[in-house]
Design a protein that fits this description.
The chain is mostly helical. The protein contains 15 helices and 4 strands.
């Protein structure tokens, strides 16, 4: 116990994200390599890194909602779409800077997610999953059936490039630094959330919502807040996506994309921010491999047709999810934690 009367293993000590100098050094080296990446690797790699950073923001939000709060969410792509359309409309029709459009996109998606989060107070499990799928179809229905002058309909919306003090973020390298800055802020915020009283409330509700309610936690508000935060992250990621692609269409935010985000947190490990980042890296690498190899296979075996890439990606990712659910249901971070524990107590068995 230290002089202040707090044990070293208390909540205050647990709030420290970086506990050793080696961890701090590793983080500094990693961040420095990322900042130098546009000068070290090709533009193709930078494009992949841009996709990974945007996916990381969205997957981290889903991790808070599903991994920490235990609320099944199969509508993350719809929340991402709300943010993308909000940023696109604000940027193209009002000329607002991305410093305003990105937060506003997150807020609009958070409001949309909060409406579906209110239903989580009364339903759970399979029925909650169906409700979030309904959000996916409601988003598509609204975009395609509202007047085309509002959301562009099936034609989509063209997005002007992000601009700050006359600097236009047009090239892959300039967009890389924009995505890096926003994703770093969002990931750091996620670590703060899960270490705060809100994060503790999420975990308590996930483990046993009845016991959490007895302890004085507002279970309904906690579940709704989990959807709000998860949707906010998705909306910010959608805004980054809009500025990266410079075009927003409803077919970019389908149920398949929501399943991809779920796969990322399953592979990386539920209930771990770092696990979500690892899952993003692995799933995106698998997608890139399939997208690269698929056309060659289609050309070599003509009877497979040109849809082999899309079908093969879904089959492989579905197989990856199934294998992890069977062989490593707690994800790669759980296996990494076991290896760390084994190393610390070696050569003793326990």
């Amino acid at each position: 116990m230290d002089p202040s009367g707090v044990f070293p293993t208390s909540y205050r000590s647990d709030r420290r994200l970086i506990r050793t100098r080696w961890q701090f050094l590793a983080l500094v080296v990693f961040m420095a390599l990322l900042l130098l990446a546009p000068y070290l690797v090709s533009s193709r790699i930078i494009a992949i890194l841009n996709m990974m950073m945007i996916s990381a923001v969205i997957a981290v939000g889903l991790q808070i909602c599903t991994g920490y709060a235990g609320q099944i969410n199969l509508g993350q792509a719809a929340f991402m779409g709300v943010g993308a359309y909000t940023a696109s409309i604000l940027a193209s029709k009002t000329g607002l800077t991305f410093l305003l459009t990105i937060p506003l996109a997150g807020l609009s998606a958070a409001l949309f997610g909060f409406l579906f989060g209110l239903t989580a107070a009364r339903i759970k499990g399979f029925y909650l999953a169906l409700t979030t799928i309904a959000a996916q179809f409601l988003f598509h229905f609204a975009v395609l059936n509202l007047p085309s002058t509002w959301l562009g309909g099936s034609n989509g919306i063209t997005v002007p490039p992000a601009e700050l003090f006359g600097l236009r973020f047009v090239s892959e390298s300039s967009q890389f630094y924009l995505n890096f800055a926003v994703s770093a802020i969002m990931v750091a915020g996620a670590f703060g959330i899960v270490r705060s009283r809100f994060g503790r409330a999420f975990v308590a509700v996930r483990d046993d919502d009845v016991a959490a309610g007895i302890m004085g936690i507002n279970v309904a508000a906690t579940k709704a807040n989990a959807f709000l935060i998860g949707a906010f992250y998705a909306g910010v990621g959608g805004a980054l996506w809009a500025y990266l692609i410079r075009f927003v269409g409803v077919d970019q935010f389908t149920l398949f994309h929501s399943i991809f985000f779920v796969a990322m947190i399953i592979v990386g490990g539920m209930g771990s921010i770092v696990g979500a980042l690892i899952g993003v890296f692995i799933i995106r690498i698998i997608q890139e491999i399939i997208a690269t190899v698929g056309p060659n296979i289609a050309d070599s075996v003509s009877f497979l047709g040109g849809d082999i890439v899309f079908a093969g990606m879904n089959v492989v990712l579905g197989g990856v999810i199934a294998l992890f659910m069977i062989l490593e249901p707690k994800g790669l971070m759980h296996r990494w934690n076991i290896l760390k524990s084994s190393y610390r107590i070696w050569p003793f068995p326990y």
